[in-house]
Amino acid sequence: MDFEDTPAEQEFRGQARRFLSTHARRREPTVSAPSQSTLEEARAWQAAKAAAGFGAITLPPEWGGRGLGPAFQVVYDQEELHYEVPRGRWFMVGMGVCIPTMIRYARKE
Predict the structure, then answer these.
(1) DSSP H helical segments within 25-69, as ranges?
(2) If we measure between CA atoms, which residue out of 57, 60, 46 comes closest to residue 91?
(3) What CA dihedral angle connects 7, 9, 12 and 14, to 10 degrees?
(4) Which end of the chain has fewer CB atoms at under 10 Å, N or C?
(5) Whole-prediction pTM value?
(6) Which phi-psi region, left, alpha or beta, contains residue 30 (left: φ > 0; alpha: ψ -120 to 50)?
(7) Residue-wise burial string across 7-25, b where 16 or more C-beta atoms lie within 10 A, e elsewhere
(8) Per-residue pLDDT tens for 7-44?
(9) 88 has which bridge partners?
(10) Which tens digit of pLDDT belongs to each residue from 70-85?
């Protein structure tokens, strides 16, 4: 399996790095679990990501996403790990389960 970025993924990685370096504080690698952020911090962070086009990378554009493949989400997640940002569990179910389920059934007209 090839884990090297494609040219499109490289470009996207650059976009993610520029966004993160402007809007988040770089963190030092650590073996301990990151601290839990407050719900308000997580909401603000999710809103900033959404406004910059990084909140719903794999969702279709008509649902507010970029319509990119899962590899682009992995690229962003890898880059975000270098920064101290709210890492709450609050959006994982909505973004990973609820919204994809709604999209699937909305398309079954």
Answers:
(1) 39-51
(2) 46
(3) -70
(4) N
(5) 0.66
(6) beta
(7) eebeebbebbbebbeeebe
(8) 999 999 999 999 999 999 887 765 554 445 467 888 88
(9) none
(10) 999 999 999 999 998 8
